Amino acid sequence: MKRFVLVAGVDYERKGVDFRVFCENRVKRLAMANRAAEDLTFQIFDVKSGKIITREFTYPGGRRTENVITTTPFTPITHAHYNRVASGGEVHYKFKDGQRGMMSITDIYAAVRSIGSSDPGTLLELSFFSHAWHGGPILVNSLDDGFAEGPPAVPGGPPTRIAMGAARDPDDKDPRSGKDFTPPNMTAAELVLFQDAYHPAGYNWNWGCAFPRVIHEILHKLEHHADYRPSGLPDAQTFVFRNLDTTHIDQLASWLRKAFPDPRRVELDFGELKRFFCLATLASYSHHLAVNSKRKTYAGLIGTYSEYDTGARPLMHIHTGFSRHFRFYKNYLGFSFDPEGRKYGEYDPSFTC
User: Fold this and answer.
1) DSSP code, position 113
2) What is this structure's pTM?
3) 222: buried, middle or exposed (CB in 10 Å: 19+, 13-18, 0-12)?
């Protein structure tokens, strides 16, 4: 038996995307590719509807049969669960605080641990289909503000605010790389169960974007610098930038812990630039997921974004216009790519700077 856990986030941007469709298409593709006629179990966690759909494929006598079980253990999410926020001429939708009963990333982790407990070594794929950022899949677009809403101090009064410290904010339903895999949110024993779930060939896949624009812009400026070469540059090669703005400089200064007194002439060795992109990669949710699951994770490289396939049974792929980024990560940070040719980077658990 091979197991698959597929997660469909909410289209909180209201752009007409149903991420559940990508999960269903993934099931169809993997079932069609199952030429060995192995028994397969797919669990689809649909955050928006609150449903868990289990699709089991078995092959008695060599003929495929399918059994579907649907439950709704979580509260469905509607527009009423969001605040409309206008900023800079754009409209954003933020998940309201104080809401309970909706599906959370913690429920996904619990499902994986359950496999680790009851059927270890069988989880072949954990996939997230959603909007995303370098901090991970965005299941609902909630906020980790470090406080939970408690009962009012007086009847009819405002809710109290409870500081959470290292614990996850219960108002927050989205992944957090700095909290999710450490106590008190996941104990050492629970982490072992999480790891035990995976098949020896198991992997994770974050299908959404990983596009902090400022990091993309810095890499773009490096790749178009007169002294840049797509391979073979030594770490000692010096680059002088005269086209960085305050946002770029602040980002470099923060990550590299280095001051740049003259913003009109920013000088960096290539080794420092490599370290900047390496550190951004280490901070990503995809890296943390790879390390804590002890399994490779396919995800967008930092500074790239995904788009939707066209044609039959569409999934997602990384936009092909990032070819220079692909070469940089491959030639200078040692990245490989996903086996399906979708240009998702392979985050290896052993990756380091």
Assistant:
1) H
2) 0.95
3) buried
